[in-house]
Amino acid sequence: MINIIGGGISGLSTALALQQNKLDYKLFEKDDEITYANVGLGISHNIRPILNEWNILERTKELGAEITHFHFGDCKLRYLKSFRLKQPALCVNRKKFHQLLYQQLDHNKVVLSSVKSAKDFNPDEMVICAEGIQSGFRQELYPQLQLRKANQILWRGISEIRLENKFRNAYHDFIGSNIRFAIIHTGGNFYSWYIIRPLMPDMEISVGKSTLKSFFEGDHPVIRSVIEHTESIYTSDLMDINPKRRKSLSWFNDNALMIGDAIHPTTPNMANGACLAIEDAYTIVNMIIGNQQPLKDIFELFQQRRKSKVDSVVSQSWWLGQLFHQHSSLMNSIVKMGIVSMPHFMFDSIYSNVLKDMTYKRIA
Question: Which alpha helices (DSSP H) does the chain contain, by range?
Fold first, then answer.
């Protein structure tokens, strides 16, 4: 029996991978339902083979849109630089993707409204801690390992609105005076979006449309229209764990292993947090199939296999988040000039980190 704590993407993906390989599991979720907010979710091209192996790739495609172009611009909707993605990504509704994963599982193996810790299980039972960024197991094991605050606030949602054709199958990232607004096609007339701006002292965090639209007075009206056509808006502080702080720390202890945001949360600037979680799930399950090694050896090999890519994506996402938010108009202009002059090979190089296959594929 393999026990999974947490019903987020990493936990559900682990359960599905185990089920596909006819391995027994039990998933424990603290909330009374498996769900998520109506927000966008990026799925990079390298995740497609995994979803295909799990027999959900085509249904995942139906949940969103293929992203073939990436556009940088300013909040006046003037394009700075555009790139065609050689390996298109997907953008889907995260709530619907959660539901898709959950629908594949044997619900008799899912226990809702159940708060569990690694200590609740027998020492000979494997435990996968997929509790998310506020992982109790991580905090208990490494109380000194604090979350790193980006001092930035994120607002996001999904808008149902008719936009020009240039917004379809595209990711638009508008960079302005220390604020960003992104619009990503999420299928049909649905567009996920987000705002990121610095978190100032005594700043009142509002999800009111009027407040958010006021950030863009004088900017292109499409931004305010996208916000206005949103049913629900969600907000959160941006945080991760500095890879240097956990460089010498194990992702496991005895019979319990942390995966996904429980051990390597990332800021959203590379749109890859969920993908890293899916890769983790796929990798650990393939490593335990028919493996008679002690859990410690399997967990050590898993960490070695995943560490390089995870650290690279987390660090790069943090760096981009800091780069795109400049407090001075001079530095803001320099960043924009850098984007304008960016050659395609440099963009490909930045994006290539998320496309690396650092999973463990079982050889039949």
Answer: 9-20, 48-53, 57-61, 94-104, 136-141, 209-214, 221-228, 273-288, 295-323, 329-340, 344-355
Give just the sign of the alpha carbon dihedral 271, 272, 273, 274: positive
Q: Which residues contact 166 (CB under 8 A, 6 or more apart)?
A: none
User: For the segment 249-286, what is each residue's pLDDT rounded down to a tens digit?
Assistant: 999 999 999 999 999 999 999 999 999 999 999 999 99
Dihedral (C-alpha) 76, 82, 84, 90: value to the nearest 10 degrees? Answer: -30
pTM over 0.90: yes
β-strand 2-5 against 25-28: which pairing, if any?
Answer: parallel
Paired tokens of 69: 């172009």
**Rounded CA separation 186/46 (Å):** 19
pLDDT of 176 higher than 90:
no
Question: Whose structure tokens read 């994120």?
Answer: 154
Is residue 298 a contact partner of residue 275, using CB atoms and an 8 Å limit?
Answer: no
Locate 94 and state its tokens: 């995260």
What structural domains and CATH numbers belong to the chain? Answer: 2-355 (3.50.50.60)
Task: Give the Cα separation of 289 and 88 in Å (integer).
Answer: 31
CA 267 from centroid of its chain's CA atoms: 8
Tally the C-alpha atoms within 13 A of residue 120's C-alpha that lie toward its C-beta. Answer: 13
Nearest to 69 by CA among 211, 172, 191, 222: 172
Report CA-CA distances (Å) from 20 to 24, 104, 158.
Answer: 10, 10, 32
